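Propose amino acids for all 453 sites.
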C-alpha cells in the first residue's frame, strides 16, 4: 500500500463532498493515475465493477485494504502556527494579548536558531502527517532561514503545504526582539520566500507560498498596503487572523473605525485566495463581503474556547455562502489532531444552538439552527478546507489528488471498536468521535504513503 500511483485500491471509502452529506463507498475501487491523482471511482454496484476488478487483479495492480478499515480523505488544516508546536497544551490560562507577549513571541524568536527550528519543524511535520493532515496552512516566523527550512521539510516529507513568512512590523504591538526590522524588510522577506518556494528545484506544486500579515495589530498600514500589492501582483494565497477576540476586534475598530474584514479588504488582502483565521466576531455584512470576495474562513473551534470570547457562527456563515474549513490553530488549540477539531466543531455548534447560561429560559438561551453533526465536521476538515484553497482534494472524485488516510480499528492501542450492529454510517461517526493517531495506519499524499517510520 506504499505507492498507489498507477494502481487501484479496493476498499471502503467515506467522504463528505458537501456540508450535511456523507457518502460511503463500500467495497469500491479507486484507480490512480501515474501522478497519484484519482482517475476513476467505481462503486460496488456500478456497471463494470467486477470486470475492472478482474482486469487490475490480472495486471497485478490491485491493492486491497484489510477488512473493517476505512479510507477517508486526508485532513486539510487551514491554520497552524508551526513554531508554536513546543508550547502545545501550555499557557492556555491567559488572554490572547498576554499569551502573545508572554509566551508566544519569546518562543517564535527562538527560530533565529536554525538547529532549534530543524528539531521543532521536523517533529511537527512528522506528527501532523501521522495524524492524517495531508495539507497544512502554516504561519512560520519572521525568519527567512527557518521558514525556508519548513518548506524543505514539507517537500521532503511529502506534505502539501502553504508556508508563510510572518510579517509583523508594528513597534507598538510587537517586541523589539521579535519583529521585522523595518517594513521594507518584511515586504522584501515575503517576496524572497515567494521566490524561494516557486523556484525550488524539488517543488512540483506540493508547496505554495502564502502572504502572511500576522494580524492587523502587529502590522503598520505601510506593511498591509505593501502585502496587498504583492498579493495582487503575484496572485499568491494570503492568510491572517480576523475578528478573533473582543480585544483584537476592538483594536481594529478603534484604529480604523471599521471592522477587521472591511479593513483587510481596503488593503487588498481579501481575495479569492485569502484564508481568514477565526472570524468569530464577523457581522452579517462582513460575511457578505467575505463571500463576495470569495475568501474563506479557517474555523478554529479548539483555540476559540481559550482565546476568542465567542463561538464562530458557522451555520450563518455557510448560509451566506462563505467557504469554511477547519484549523487546529496550533498552539492556540491544544491538539495536533484534526479529529479533535472535528469533535470541538460539533460541540461548539451545539453549545451555540442551545446556549450556555442556565438561568436563561430555553427559548432565549441559544441561537436556533446552529448545530452541525459529524458529517459536516468531516466535510469542513476535508473537502471544505480543500475548497477554501481551491485544491482538487478532500474527496474521492476523478481529478482529485489521492490524499487520504487509512483508519484501522485494529492498528495500535486505539479505543475504536466496531460492533456487529454498527451500520457503516455508525462506524464513520465512531471514527470521527473516537479515532486517534494510533488508528491511522497509513497516510498518503499524491498516492504515496508518507506515514512516519
Ligand atoms: N493573533 C495573532 N497572532 C496569533 C497567534 O499566534 N495565535 C492566535 N490564536 N491568534 C493570534
Ligand atoms: Fe492563529
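Proposal:
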Amino acid at each position: 500500500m506504499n505507492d498507489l500511483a498507477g494502481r487501484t485500491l479496493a476498499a471502503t471509502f467515506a467522504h463528505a463532498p458537501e456540508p450535511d452529506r456523507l457518502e460511503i463507498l463500500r467495497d469500491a475501487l479507486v484507480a490512480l493515475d501515474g501522478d497519484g491523482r484519482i482517475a476513476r471511482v467505481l462503486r460496488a454496484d456500478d456497471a463494470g465493477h467486477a470486470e475492472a476488478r478482474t482486469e487490475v487483479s490480472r495486471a497485478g495492480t490491485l491493492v486491497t485494504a484489510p477488512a473493517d478499515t476505512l479510507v477517508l480523505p486526508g485532513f486539510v488544516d487551514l491554520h497552524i502556527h508551526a513554531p508554536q508546536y513546543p508550547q502545545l497544551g501550555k499557557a492556555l490560562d491567559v488572554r490572547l494579548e498576554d499569551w502573545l507577549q508572554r509566551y508566544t513571541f519569546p518562543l517564535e524568536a527562538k527560530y533565529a536558531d536554525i538547529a532549534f527550528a530543524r528539531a521543532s519543524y521536523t517533529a511537527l511535520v512528522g506528527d501532523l502527517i501521522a495524524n492524517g493532515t495531508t495539507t497544512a496552512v502554516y504561519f512560520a516566523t519572521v525568519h527567512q532561514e527557518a521558514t525556508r527550512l519548513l518548506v524543505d521539510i514539507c517537500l521532503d516529507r511529502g506534505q502539501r503545504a502553504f508556508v508563510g513568512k510572518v510579517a509583523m512590523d508594528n513597534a507598538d504591538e510587537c517586541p523589539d526582539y521579535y519583529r521585522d526590522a523595518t517594513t521594507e524588510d518584511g515586504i522584501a522577506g515575503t517576496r524572497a520566500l515567494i521566490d524561494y518556494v516557486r523556484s525550488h528545484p524539488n517543488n512540483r506544486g506540493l508547496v505554495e507560498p502564502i502572504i502572511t500579515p500576522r494580524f492587523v495589530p502587529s502590522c503598520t498600514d505601510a506593511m498591509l498596503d505593501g502585502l496587498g500589492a504583492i498579493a495582487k501582483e503575484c496572485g499568491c494565497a494570503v492568510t491572517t487572523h480576523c475578528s478573533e477576540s473582543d480585544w483584537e476586534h476592538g483594536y481594529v475598530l478603534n484604529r480604523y473605525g471599521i471592522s477587521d474584514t472591511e479593513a483587510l479588504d481596503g488593503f487588498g488582502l481579501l481575495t479569492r485566495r485569502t484564508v481568514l483565521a477565526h472570524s468569530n466576531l464577523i457581522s452579517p455584512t462582513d460575511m457578505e463581503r467575505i463571500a463576495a470576495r470569495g475568501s474563506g474562513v479557517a474555523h478554529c473551534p479548539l483555540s476559540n474556547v481559550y482565546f476568542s470570547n465567542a463561538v464562530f457562527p458557522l451555520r450563518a456563515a455557510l448560509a451566506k455562502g462563505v467557504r469554511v474549513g477547519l484549523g487546529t490553530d496550533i498552539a492556540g488549540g491544544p491538539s495536533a489532531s484534526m479529529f479533535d477539531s472535528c469533535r470541538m466543531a460539533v460541540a461548539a455548534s451545539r453549545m451555540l444552538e442551545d446556549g450556555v447560561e442556565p438561568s436563561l429560559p430555553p427559548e432565549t438561551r441559544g441561537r436556533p439552527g446552529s448545530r452541525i453533526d459529524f458529517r459536516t465536521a468531516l466535510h469542513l476538515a476535508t473537502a471544505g478546507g480543500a475548497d477554501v484553497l481551491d485544491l482538487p482534494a478532500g474527496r474521492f472524485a476523478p481529478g482529485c489528488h489521492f490524499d487520504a488516510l487509512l483508519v484501522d480499528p485494529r492498528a495500535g492501542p486505539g479505543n475504536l471498536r466496531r460492533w456487529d450492529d454498527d451500520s457503516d454510517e455508525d462506524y464513520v461517526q465512531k471514527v470521527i468521535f473516537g479515532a486517534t493517531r494510533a488508528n491511522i495506519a497509513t497516510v498518503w499524499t499524491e498516492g504515496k504513503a508518507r506515514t512516519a517510520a
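The chain has a mean pLDDT of 97. The chain is about 40% helix and 20% strand.
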